[in-house]
Amino acid sequence: MSNGEIALGENQPTAQSEQKIKGFKRFYNLFRPSSADARNKERTERKYPKKIVKEGLTAIDGPEKERFIPVSRQAILDYLKRPESWAEGEYEHASTFMDYLDAWRHQSYRSRLTALKQSYLTFSPDRDTVRAMEFTPVQLLKMRHNLMEHLGDLLESANYEKVTQKDLDLLLTSDSPYGLRLHVDLDAFDDVVIYFRGAGSKIVEYRDWKWLYLRKKGVETPIFQRLFVALKLKPEEEMINQIMLRDELTHKKAEKLVKKNRKMLPDGVTSDFIYLKLFKNIPQDDLEMMFPNTKVEFKLLDKLKIGLTAGGGTIAGLATAIPKLILGITAAALNPLVLLTSLAGIIGLLVRQVTKVFHQRNEYMMTLAQNLYFHNLANNRGVLTLLVDRAEEEDIKEELLLYNYLVRNKDKGTNLSTAKADIELFLQKEFGVDINFDLEDGFSRLLRDGLVEKTDDGSYKVLPPSRASSQLHRLWRGALKTAAL
């Protein structure tokens, strides 16, 4: 019988002795090196005994398994290039091929980045070069659609998922976990493109009214681990015409409304530009924070609080100040200083109460700014560089894993369904990650670059590492000739 087991029929321990045993085990585990993870888990469960989703929040579930491979390219290269994994005489060729493939994919994505930057230059709000030529509205429209299409392809390569219009409408109608009530007019934009990678959750603390706001409570809040946003405002005249038709207003009233709504936009924000943003760990119900025309509104509780404090204080102050003012007017002929003092008191009281209202709004704006500051990853042109780097990383990982699997199992034939399941099992076993391996995407690139060949009978054959390296040499020579033309 092992330690800790109790045979049937023996005396059962008392509740007090059980408590002592549990206490001893907890004390003992504190000094076990392998118990660090268990201790951290215990602390989390003790601090947040119940994880709940705050009432009113709306979550978008990502795919059951992410296509994103949360293992670095270098870690996969190091694992696949182990000498003991290859037969004698194969290691050198395999190692050389993997380095060649890594460099070839890097070159391909550098060319892709150059083309993207060139396409985006016309719409970049951060450009510091002169505009060499002007474009017609039709040309600009075509260029804009072309840019958005290429951005979508890039995000798919980086294993991002698109936020549908249905999901966007759902998120923009929910309350914020930070206590903000935000509103966005999507009709103000020509383009609203949003992608995410990873729909997880994090613990957010807030004070619980049940404990008179003296204690904090942990709430599990749905987040986007990575969030891409592309926005382009509609031209002002187009927006005016839209409001005239929608609300049946005159041109003058519609123009006044548009100017009022766009008054909150920072200087330089115009419909000529496309704004690209990349964020991390954004609460899903704070998606409104990502828009430049977000309106911050007071919640009912804040309105009541301001009304009771500001309104009550104003009434009480006026009740005291007005009789003094009347007396001041009566005595003004004798002493004008009394009248001026009374007026100054009333003006000061009104200014103080108005200041309270603006202070409450400033608290909201500070919360907004802090969250954007610490969650921002890149803006505009920097977004393109970061996304290209991520897409390159994902592609090379997929290709390395698939090529190595096909080479090692070439005697079994090219069974893609088996390859997908086996690669997913390998990643789970060796790196502890459970993903949806994007086999079709990786296989199409290997086939396109001639590293996998289609035979006469319709099946596929993978090139051995030595021949695959020669094939990449030919691709490099072709790319250099094209660049020299």
Furnish the topology, listing elements before pairings.
Layout: H1 15-29, H2 36-47, H3 73-80, H4 91-121, H5 137-157, E1 161-162, H6 165-171, E2 181-183, E3 189-207, E4 216-233, H7 236-247, H8 251-262, E5 275-283, E6 295-297, H9 300-331, H10 336-375, E7 376-379, H11 381-408, H12 416-431, H13 439-448, E8 452-454, E9 460-462, H14 465-484
Antiparallel strand pairs: 1-3, 2-6, 3-4, 4-5, 5-7, 8-9
Helix pairs in contact: 3-11, 4-11, 4-14, 5-11, 7-8, 9-10, 11-12, 11-13
Can you offer a commentary on this structure?
This protein is of the alpha+beta class and 485 residues long. It has a domain at 301-361. 54% of the residues lie in helices and 13% in strands. The protein contains 14 helices and 9 strands. It has helices spanning 15-29, 36-47, 73-80, 91-121, 137-157, 165-171, 236-247, 251-262, 300-331, 336-375, 381-408, 416-431, 439-448, 465-484, and strands at residues 161-162, 181-183, 189-207, 216-233, 275-283, 295-297, 376-379, 452-454, 460-462. Strands 1-3-4-5-7 form a 5-stranded antiparallel sheet. A two-stranded antiparallel sheet has the order 2-6. A two-stranded antiparallel ribbon has the order 8-9. Strand 3 (189-207) and strand 4 (216-233) form a beta hairpin. It is globular, with a radius of gyration of 32 Å. It starts with 14 loop residues before the first helix and ends with a helix.
